Structure formats: structure tokens, C-alpha cells
Amino acid sequence: MSKHRQDTRRYRPDFHTVENFRDFIEAIEIVRDFLVANTPQKVRLALIVLDNTAELLMVHLCRKVFDDDEFWARLVPPRFSQKAKDRTRDFLPKVELLRAEGYITDGEASLLNLGHSYRNPAFHQGRHNPRAVRALSIMLLKPLSALLQRAFSDVSIGGIGDIGWLRDYGVSTTPLAFGVAVPHIMEQLAGGLRQPLDRIRETLAEDVLGRLDGIDRIWSDLWYLLSAEQWDEALKYAQFLDHFDDEAASTEYRELIYKITEPVTQPDGRSDAVCQPPPADPVFRQRLLQAKAEYEARSAEAASTFEATFRLSDLEKLRRQLSRLNDATSETELVMAYQELDRGLTSAEDVFLAAQCVVDESMQHAIDLASGR
């Protein structure tokens, strides 16, 4: 094997070892300690650790599905293409594959997806509601337990490795059945954290109402300047900007602008990044004006045919969906109702923040025109 091959091959250690099992349990112990501490930062970290631990387990289970498929492909056509396998590099396709293969239930899949959607803003932007995230993290222990149990099912080991720590969880170590040990361990780790359904419902409802109030504050601060129709136009334009490929539409215009803003080479050889005056060449000027007009025409045409997916009236629809939280009679129903609300709220938050920027820029432009700038 060449040196290049050795340096680039993937490292796939044996998954079913006592040490590996201990690492997963230690991650869950860390989560438990963070949730017991119940500070905003530790709750945020608990969710991040949960999400990462779940993904590591899902990587193994997806690999098992694909390895089995490759084995049987000697006799029957394979079920999964390379493209399908590559898609499972992302979190959501992993969840969908394991749900379809029966490794997790619909409710567990919804929880995992919801946890991941909360983890991203918590991890990348520090945005999270500690109370809602704590309630969600406690619920996430259930699908995590299912993943751990299925990843180590039908695996036993006896007398090998350091397994004395398992006795603290009341687990027999002669021999050790990994899958059987998981429920005992999780019961001790998560038993004291469980919350009644009504308390979870109340926490999630408070999160939804708080986020709706935050959206209300964005547009109500400017209600005296914009009518509902004008807000809908701002929301539509904000959504349009998110979908419109401005870079492709303005390629020629930008290239000509760049010629004006190229660095000026000084007599001593230095390049100063300052704007040059527009070239006096009338041909260049005509090309620039024509490119600008074509860019604006493409933008205007695309904007005129764009259909907005969110309007001001949709806020009231989100409020009415709160009743689904109240109607839920099980944790699974509650999670699925909250997941749908969370998707709508996340979209609304993004659109309103973008619309606020549109309104602010329009107001500043009007001020500049009025002052002659």
C-alpha cells in the first residue's frame, strides 16, 4: 500500500468494545450533570453533547445498514446507491434512514430532528431558550437510549476490560450484555430528571409565546409608519432577496463596477485600494449603464412573479396552532406538535428580521434623499 493510501484511508476501529461503551455512558453522565446544574450555559452544552452523541451512534447504525446491504449485494441487487450513502453524511438523512429501517420510531425521529434544529443556533450563534432546551434535552435522553441499546444489541463480553464501574449501576458483569445494561444505566441517570407531561407542555408553550412576542415587537415598533399591506410587501421582498440569485443576475454589472474600484498603482509601485474616478470613455459608460439597466430589469421581473410564503396574517395562524400543544395526550404528540410550530416560528423569525433590515434601509434612503445626500 502506498504512503498516500495509508495517510488518507478512513480509521474504523472496532465499535463494540468496553472502552467505547464507557465513552458513550460518560457522555450521558456529563449531560446529566449539566442538566442537574441547570445554568443557561450548561443546559446549552448538554444539548450539544446529546446531539453529538446521537450522531456518533447513528453513524455506526447507518454503516451497519450499508455493510449488510453490501454483503447481500452478492446475491440480490443493492438497495442503496453511493449517492444515497453520501447523503447520510448529514444529520437529517441519517435520522430518516434509521426511521425507515426500524431502528427508531417516528416519535424518536421527531425528537432527534427537533434537538438538532435547536442545537445549531445554540452551538453556532449562542441562541437558545434555557428552559425549553432543558425540557427538550431531558426528552432526548429517550431516543439516545434507544440508539445506544440498538447499537450494542446482541453483543456480550465477559472478563475482558475494566467493567467494574458497571456494578455501580446494578449491572451484572458476568458476562456483560451491552444491550441489556443500557436500560438499567439510563434509568439511574435519567430517572430523577423526568418531567410530567403538563410541565413540559407549559415550558414549550411559554417558549412559543415568547418567540411570538419577540416577532410582534419587531413590527409593532414601526406600526405607525407602515400599514399591514406595506409590512406584507416588506416581508415579500425579504423572502424574495433570500431566494433570488443576485450574483448571477448582476455578473456583468459587477465586473464593470470592479474595473472602477481596482486599486490605483502609485508612481512608487504601491497599490492603494481606493476608488478611481469612472473612466471617461463613453463606450465604457454606455456598457455600464446598459448592464445596470439589464440587472435591474431581471431583478424587477423576478420580484414581480415571486410568491411569498409568509405574511403578517400568518402570525395569528401560528398562535392558533398553540392549541395543538394543549390537545397532545402523549409526549410523542407533544413533540410533533411543537416541531411543526418550531419550523413555522423559525421561518417567521428569519423573515421578520430580514424585513426589518429592508424597512430600515428604505427609511434611511428616504432620509438621505430628503437631506440631499
Report what the structure shows.
The protein is mostly helical and 373 residues long. The protein folds into three domains: 11-195, no CATH class; 214-244 and 310-373, no CATH class; 245-305, no CATH class. It is 70% helix and 2% strand. The protein is built from 16 helices and four strands. A two-stranded antiparallel sheet has the order 1-2. Strand 3 and strand 4 form a beta hairpin. Helix 6 (106-124) packs across helix 7, helix 7 runs antiparallel to helix 8 (178-190) and helix 7 packs across helix 9 (197-220). The longest helix is centred in the C-terminal third of the chain and has 40 residues, at 331-370. The protein is globular, with a radius of gyration of 28 Å. The chain starts with a helix and ends with a helix.
